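Bench log. Compound arrived from synthesis this morning; before running ITC I wanted a structural hypothesis for how NAP sits in the protein. Inputs:
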Amino acid sequence: MNVTMVMISSVDGKTTRGNNPNVYLWSSPEDQRFFFSLIKKNNLIVMGRETYEASKKVIRLEEKKLRILLTRNQKKYLKESIDGQLEFSNESPKNLIKRMSGSGYKKMLLVGGGTINGLFLKQNLVDELYLTVEPKIFGTGKDIVAGQLLNTKLKLISVKKLNKTGTILLKYVINK
Ligand SMILES: NC(=O)c1ccc[n+]([C@@H]2O[C@H](COP(=O)([O-])OP(=O)(O)OC[C@H]3O[C@@H](n4cnc5c(N)ncnc54)[C@H](OP(=O)(O)O)[C@@H]3O)[C@@H](O)[C@H]2O)c1
């Protein structure tokens, strides 16, 4: 299974502006276009429960695109799940990847947030990272990775300037 992590941050490394979970308030249209093109290309999308809550309004469920929400409280979401489109799971990242590979999926898009990113990185399960850096400074906010001490080594593959203000899209591969 090829796992791609995708995140957007400010220049000072914040993935939210303070406690506001809505990243669409500050992400550039160019990044949004890029992000939605990735969503379009991927049929298996994994996220944390808090990320799901934050982006519920913009998620458009579709056939043949499975979104998996990681939560330790699956029961709470039983009514929201839709077969083949929206699942709630408390599996470990390793078990989830194993199960999804068994179901024929070859790639997974990991869309955050920091807690879930940390769980996957800790187990060395991420292959590549797209990181958009918006030319903004927030001072406080969430981090790309939360709750783990890591020593993950990356290799920069490409740098793309997405617009005139200087939104930068970085692509890394992760040494495994
Ligand atoms: N800038 C970006 O690119 C970007 C991307 C994504 C998200 N965000 C922002 O980041 C924020 C969320 O980040 P976050 O790190 O706090 O949360 P998160 O990673 O989205 O989700 C954390 C949740 O995952 C569940 N979880 C934790 N450990 C687990 C485990 N071992 N097994 C299964 N589930 C587990 C827990 O849900 P339960 O409490 O239900 O168990 C926990 O609350 C949001 O504000 C969102 O807008 C930003």
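What the model suggests: The chain is about 20% helix and 30% strand. Strands lie at 2-10, 44-48, 66-70, 86-89, 107-110, 128-134, 154-161, 168-174.
ITC booked for Thursday regardless.
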